[in-house]
Design goal:
This protein has about 400 residues and is an all-beta fold. The protein has a domain of about 120 residues. Helices cover about 0% and strands about 50% of the residues. It is built from one helix and 30 strands. The radius of gyration is 20 Å and the shape is globular.
Length: about 400
Amino acid sequence: MSEPNEASFFEEPVDFGRPIVTRGRVFSFPLRSLIRKSGIPAGNCPSIVWDPQNAAFYGLVVGEEPHLFLFDSNSTVEDIGAVGDAPAGHGFLVFDGRDRLLCSLTDSAGDTRLFVHPLTQERRMYSHMWGHFMFGPVEQLGAPIPQERLVAGAAAFGPAAGAGGGPAAAGGTGTGTGTTATGRILLLASSGGIYEADLDAGKIERIAAVPPQNLSPALACDPATGHLYGVSGRGRLWRRDGSALEVLEARIPTMKNRDYVASCSSLVWHAGRLYGSTLQDAYLFEYHPEQGLIRNLGRPDENTEIRGIDVLADGRIFGITATPGRGMGHLFCWSPRSGFSDLGVIHGWQPINDFAYEPLCIRAGGSGDFLIGNGEGRSNVFLFCSPPEG
């Protein structure tokens, strides 16, 4: 007897009251059903990063056996391997801006372990034509951090020696004046602690603290100045310049006459501006550091949470929304020229028919494409290929 078709339920068009994505194309990729045998078990994909040098996405699956995977420009999925030897319900990845990934995993006891994966070997040995990979190791960094949950991370930027080049994250070489990726990673804990992971020295240390009340799980480092930004308290931005912490007057937006504090879900820099999103009211906002002001860009749809955003080189922001416990995952786009577009339900037709009930993260690639990580223990991702702006 043949095995049942796992996608048969979705073979016919389904009307969920909102349109399927019609501008751009969405494809679904199961991480467990690969041409080459994969060891990735059921789990959630809460974090994805992009390596521009290898033109590949890297993602994390958390669950009973956390795994790292690679998703390349030819839509090939490769299982890099297990991360550690313990289950983890929470985790995220950070790219150091050079040639390493840092993976943070928090187990059920509340202890966090950090792992490092170098990218140099697959960059050297990988062929996009033949789909051949040789992966470096995934090794633990330092000792576990007891009873501390890390919630966000960002690559650190610092002064760059020499002349010419400009910041690597801003499109320059990273070898000239201004700033460049230092190879260190800054991490934010739910307790308000800020940690610095020195990947060269193989150590982690707590270097500062921010107000822990209503702390948002979002962190971003300005590639132009090296200043670190986050959100806590009554929705106020804070900034750390390397030695001192300052709570700014700027507040992230909420609906009027609502007696609660907004939580920030994402922060991302683009062209000297900090863009962010909120959970409760699904607002998109823009922060101007030279003016110290936040501009409310509005809401993409009626869903109550923006789970994540990322921005293309042309300034268009794409994001994912969902409603906890009900409603499908949606894609939206915001353009400085035309404002918001609700692109509809995230639905991938190939290689299997699938829907993003609980999208968890979104990351931009190098050609207008986005990879979306999904939850519900299904171990799958969605590739969204955005169209040019008309």
